[in-house]
Amino acid sequence: MATPPRRLFLARAVAAGASLAATAAVGYGTATTLRGPVVKRVTIPLAKLPRTAHGFRIAVVSDIHLGPILGRAHTRRVVETINRTHPDLVAIVGDLVDGNVTDLAPAAEPLRELRSRHGAFFVTGNHEYYSGADQWVDHVRELGIHPLENARTELPGFDLAGINDVAGQTERAGPDYDQALGDRDPARAVVLMAHQPVTIHDTVRYGVDLQLSGHTHGGQMWPFTYIADATNPTVAGLERYGDTQLYVSRGAGTWGPPVRLGAPPDVTVVELASLRA
């Protein structure tokens, strides 16, 4: 039996509307990505932070994902966004790249222009190990950025530590908390850079005050939001686990299609607060 003309018209109209809505959503999500990250600001009190370090500002950026689609112009947008915040320190929390140094060194070059009072620091993400983590650790050092490979440095008022990503276990270079934190002064506050939020439970056991992470992209877009929520203790924002706080950035780039829906890219300025101020 032939479909009545009215019903056929309605079916075609619904299909066309759905197609237009999907196209509009993808277009909007792509434009959101290519405009560059927005700036978020969050104040995080740390019990051990001295009054002299009250107001210390860390520009946190993760998941820049330089590659065939997001290249040098993307890096420049990220760098300019960070520099406009005039941070005390820059923390690059993994997944900087999707490719090797030979192909992506020009795209990474604007990172040399990062500006902050105490420098820029970097820890590996899982994607660095897909590309060759050692070459990228060496290259970011050439760009004036300090890699923290299961290591720690003392800053005015607190320690900054970093652990390798869990993906490094395949190369016998995974996270080593003892190496990063074993001999520290427990009276000093410590901020830990760790790419994946899933390390938070180990972080709690080591008495870390604040963990800075990325990896989730805030879900990036449906249906990946469900996967991110199912596989990470925190998808985005600030949460407390025991005496440790965890902040997860939505990241500045994308994995796969350069589309973000409901999870715009960000650079977060974390302002540390002393309870003694």
From TrEMBL:
Residues 1-24 form the signal peptide. Keywords: Hydrolase, Metal-binding, Signal. InterPro entries: Calcineurin-like_PHP, Metallo-depent_PP-like, Metallophosphoesterase_sf, TAT_signal. This is Metallophosphoesterase. The keyword Signal applies. The keyword Metal-binding applies. Residues 56-218 form the Calcineurin-like phosphoesterase domain. GO terms for molecular function: hydrolase activity. It holds the Pfam family Metallophos.
